[in-house]
Protein backbone atom coordinates (compact mmCIF):
# COMPACT_ATOMS: atom_id res chain seq x y z
CA UNK A 1 0.00 0.00 0.00
CA UNK A 2 1.21 3.45 -0.82
CA UNK A 3 0.27 6.77 0.70
CA UNK A 4 0.73 8.68 -2.56
CA UNK A 5 -2.44 10.32 -3.82
CA UNK A 6 -3.95 8.91 -6.96
CA UNK A 7 -3.98 11.08 -10.02
CA UNK A 8 -7.13 13.17 -10.24
CA UNK A 9 -7.89 12.79 -6.52
CA UNK A 10 -7.23 15.50 -3.97
CA UNK A 11 -6.15 14.78 -0.46
CA UNK A 12 -8.18 16.16 2.45
CA UNK A 13 -5.21 18.31 3.49
CA UNK A 14 -5.05 20.01 0.07
CA UNK A 15 -8.77 20.78 0.02
CA UNK A 16 -8.68 22.23 3.56
CA UNK A 17 -5.64 24.32 2.68
CA UNK A 18 -7.26 25.49 -0.54
CA UNK A 19 -10.40 26.46 1.38
CA UNK A 20 -8.36 28.43 3.91
CA UNK A 21 -6.49 30.24 1.15
CA UNK A 22 -9.77 31.13 -0.58
CA UNK A 23 -11.25 32.43 2.68
CA UNK A 24 -8.10 34.47 3.43
CA UNK A 25 -8.15 35.97 -0.07
CA UNK A 26 -11.83 36.81 0.27
CA UNK A 27 -11.27 38.40 3.67
CA UNK A 28 -8.30 40.41 2.39
CA UNK A 29 -10.35 41.56 -0.58
CA UNK A 30 -13.18 42.67 1.71
CA UNK A 31 -10.79 44.55 3.99
CA UNK A 32 -9.15 46.25 1.01
CA UNK A 33 -12.53 47.22 -0.44
CA UNK A 34 -13.65 48.57 2.92
CA UNK A 35 -10.46 50.62 3.27
CA UNK A 36 -10.86 51.93 -0.28
CA UNK A 37 -14.48 52.92 0.40
CA UNK A 38 -13.48 54.69 3.61
CA UNK A 39 -10.66 56.52 1.80
CA UNK A 40 -13.07 57.65 -0.94
CA UNK A 41 -15.55 58.84 1.68
CA UNK A 42 -12.84 60.80 3.50
CA UNK A 43 -11.54 62.24 0.21
CA UNK A 44 -15.09 63.30 -0.72
CA UNK A 45 -15.49 65.08 2.64
CA UNK A 46 -12.17 66.85 2.18
CA UNK A 47 -13.11 67.79 -1.39
CA UNK A 48 -16.35 69.36 -0.19
CA UNK A 49 -14.53 71.22 2.60
CA UNK A 50 -11.99 72.52 0.08
CA UNK A 51 -14.78 73.65 -2.25
CA UNK A 52 -16.39 75.52 0.64
CA UNK A 53 -13.09 77.22 1.50
CA UNK A 54 -12.61 78.25 -2.12
CA UNK A 55 -16.15 79.66 -2.08
CA UNK A 56 -15.22 81.66 1.05
CA UNK A 57 -12.24 83.08 -0.83
CA UNK A 58 -14.58 84.09 -3.67
CA UNK A 59 -16.81 85.88 -1.15
CA UNK A 60 -13.81 87.75 0.25
CA UNK A 61 -12.76 88.75 -3.26
CA UNK A 62 -16.31 89.99 -3.92
CA UNK A 63 -16.13 92.05 -0.74
CA UNK A 64 -12.79 93.46 -1.84
CA UNK A 65 -14.32 94.21 -5.26
CA UNK A 66 -16.97 96.39 -3.62
CA UNK A 67 -14.29 98.37 -1.82
CA UNK A 68 -12.16 98.65 -4.97
CA UNK A 69 -15.18 99.88 -6.94
CA UNK A 70 -15.71 102.69 -4.42
CA UNK A 71 -12.11 103.81 -4.66
CA UNK A 72 -11.24 102.94 -8.25
CA UNK A 73 -14.36 102.07 -10.28
CA UNK A 74 -12.43 101.12 -13.42
CA UNK A 75 -10.57 98.33 -11.62
CA UNK A 76 -13.63 96.85 -9.91
CA UNK A 77 -14.59 94.64 -12.83
CA UNK A 78 -11.15 92.98 -12.80
CA UNK A 79 -11.61 92.00 -9.17
CA UNK A 80 -15.18 90.77 -9.90
CA UNK A 81 -13.81 88.67 -12.79
CA UNK A 82 -11.27 87.13 -10.39
CA UNK A 83 -14.07 86.30 -7.94
CA UNK A 84 -16.04 84.69 -10.77
CA UNK A 85 -13.05 82.55 -11.71
CA UNK A 86 -12.62 81.43 -8.12
CA UNK A 87 -16.34 80.58 -7.95
CA UNK A 88 -16.02 78.46 -11.11
CA UNK A 89 -13.14 76.55 -9.52
CA UNK A 90 -15.26 75.99 -6.41
CA UNK A 91 -18.23 74.68 -8.38
CA UNK A 92 -15.99 72.45 -10.51
CA UNK A 93 -14.44 70.95 -7.40
CA UNK A 94 -17.86 70.47 -5.81
CA UNK A 95 -19.46 68.89 -8.91
CA UNK A 96 -16.63 66.57 -10.02
CA UNK A 97 -15.90 63.20 -8.47
CA UNK A 98 -12.53 62.48 -6.89
CA UNK A 99 -11.64 60.26 -9.86
CA UNK A 100 -12.52 63.06 -12.30
CA UNK A 101 -10.40 65.56 -10.38
CA UNK A 102 -7.44 63.15 -10.30
CA UNK A 103 -7.83 62.52 -14.04
CA UNK A 104 -7.92 66.28 -14.71
CA UNK A 105 -4.73 66.68 -12.67
CA UNK A 106 -3.00 63.87 -14.53
CA UNK A 107 -4.07 65.29 -17.90
CA UNK A 108 -2.74 68.70 -16.90
CA UNK A 109 0.56 67.17 -15.77
CA UNK A 110 0.92 65.31 -19.06
CA UNK A 111 0.06 68.30 -21.24
CA UNK A 112 2.07 70.92 -19.28
CA UNK A 113 4.80 69.17 -17.28
CA UNK A 114 6.82 72.35 -16.67
CA UNK A 115 3.84 74.27 -15.31
CA UNK A 116 2.83 71.27 -13.22
CA UNK A 117 6.33 70.98 -11.78
CA UNK A 118 6.51 74.69 -10.98
CA UNK A 119 3.06 74.54 -9.38
CA UNK A 120 4.11 71.52 -7.34
CA UNK A 121 7.14 73.41 -6.04
CA UNK A 122 4.98 76.41 -5.08
CA UNK A 123 2.39 74.18 -3.39
CA UNK A 124 5.12 72.27 -1.58
CA UNK A 125 6.70 75.49 -0.35
CA UNK A 126 3.32 76.85 0.80
CA UNK A 127 2.50 73.57 2.54
CA UNK A 128 5.87 73.55 4.31
CA UNK A 129 5.33 77.13 5.52
CA UNK A 130 1.82 76.28 6.70
CA UNK A 131 2.99 73.20 8.59
CA UNK A 132 5.88 75.11 10.18
CA UNK A 133 3.56 77.92 11.27
CA UNK A 134 1.09 75.40 12.67
CA UNK A 135 3.85 73.65 14.61
CA UNK A 136 5.11 77.00 15.96
CA UNK A 137 1.60 77.93 17.13
CA UNK A 138 1.16 74.57 18.84
CA UNK A 139 4.52 74.97 20.57
CA UNK A 140 3.58 78.46 21.79
CA UNK A 141 0.24 77.21 23.07
CA UNK A 142 1.79 74.30 24.96
CA UNK A 143 4.53 76.57 26.39
CA UNK A 144 2.01 79.03 27.78
CA UNK A 145 1.69 81.33 24.80
CA UNK A 146 3.86 84.19 23.60
CA UNK A 147 2.88 86.52 26.45
CA UNK A 148 3.94 84.02 29.10
CA UNK A 149 7.16 83.25 27.29
CA UNK A 150 7.98 86.98 27.12
CA UNK A 151 7.48 87.37 30.87
CA UNK A 152 9.70 84.35 31.50
CA UNK A 153 12.48 85.87 29.38
CA UNK A 154 12.22 89.22 31.23
CA UNK A 155 12.36 87.45 34.58
CA UNK A 156 15.65 85.76 33.59
CA UNK A 157 17.24 89.05 32.46
CA UNK A 158 19.54 90.46 35.16
CA UNK A 159 18.57 93.91 36.40
CA UNK A 160 22.17 95.20 36.21
CA UNK A 161 22.23 94.64 32.45
CA UNK A 162 19.45 97.16 32.04
CA UNK A 163 21.72 99.94 33.29
CA UNK A 164 24.58 98.82 31.02
CA UNK A 165 26.82 97.64 33.88
CA UNK A 166 27.95 94.10 34.51
CA UNK A 167 27.04 92.44 37.80
CA UNK A 168 30.69 92.09 38.85
CA UNK A 169 31.51 95.76 38.21
CA UNK A 170 28.36 97.06 39.90
CA UNK A 171 29.11 95.52 43.26
CA UNK A 172 26.53 95.26 46.02
CA UNK A 173 25.46 98.90 45.64
CA UNK A 174 25.72 98.99 41.82
CA UNK A 175 21.98 98.73 41.26
CA UNK A 176 21.24 101.44 43.80
CA UNK A 177 23.84 103.71 42.20
CA UNK A 178 22.39 103.07 38.74
CA UNK A 179 18.88 103.86 40.00
CA UNK A 180 20.08 107.07 41.65
CA UNK A 181 21.93 108.10 38.49
CA UNK A 182 18.86 107.43 36.36
CA UNK A 183 16.71 109.56 38.69
CA UNK A 184 19.18 112.46 38.82
How is this structure best described in words?
This protein is mainly alpha-helical. Helices cover 85% and strands 0% of the residues. It has helices spanning 12-71, 73-95, 98-111, 113-142, 145-156, 159-162, 167-170, 174-183. The model is unreliable at 159-184 (pLDDT under 50).
What brief labels describe this structure?
184 residues; mainly alpha; 8 helices; disordered C terminus
Please give the largest β-sheet.
Answer: none
SSE order in H/E notation?
A: HHHHHHHH
Beta-strand share of residues: under 5%
Count of discrete structural domains: 2
The backbone outline, from C-alpha atoms, is: elongated
Poorly predicted runs of 5 or more residues:
159-184
Radius of gyration: 34 Å
Count the E strands.
0
Structural class computed from helices and strand pairing: mainly alpha
